[in-house]
Amino acid sequence: MPLDRKQLKAEAKDRLTRAKVNPYGFTLVYLIVSAVLGALSFYASLPRMIENIDQMQIPELSLALRDSLYVSFFSKLPALPSGPAAFIGILVWLMAVLLRAGVVLYHLGVFRGEERPFSTLFEGFGIAGKVIVLALLESIFVFLWSLLFVIPGIIAIYRYRFALYSLCEDPELSSSAALRRSKQLTRGFKWQLFVLDLSFIGWEILAGMTGHILDIWLDPYRSQTDMGYYHAIKAIQDGDTPAAE
Length: 245
Fold this sequence. Notes:
0% strand; mainly alpha; 245 residues
């Protein structure tokens, strides 16, 4: 059942222009918060990172790392003991998972034409338990499938792609039910989702060339396109409407 990728992308752009709360401003806030969390995680893990690279006994790599401006800045700060560093790493991961749920809730609202304020970014904390359990289960399942080889792991990533979407749309679902729901929805559509991701590679490269500043525009575009795919696939799987020609 082929989906009309060009049409779904065009509809995503149209929804973004009609969003009641600026999607690019929302994304900028999300990216800033994510950058702060990323810097904090990097700082906590820096001593172990340097130690591991030194143990590799590759002088050029070790020297290049130590000469990096990013590393040089954080290396001037006092190193954290392993216990607090591990705690910060876990905390950052939890925050990132919950913020991602907030992004999904925002874009779900945009898709529905609802007004979603910037504070929606933190609404994932309201269902924190289920979101965290879902992320843990998804990570475990993808890891286990990856043990079989790379391709089963990639397939597993696409199998659970809509798990968080399902949970955010229906918070009454359990984490395991959200995974099963995603497995049901993506059956027969994994290849089309893979092709969708391939269609954004050019934009991803361009974003990297701009220091990821372009992500302020690209992330909402991808998120709304993904949301459009989620609802189109859900309509097909639930028998509500035929696939787009």
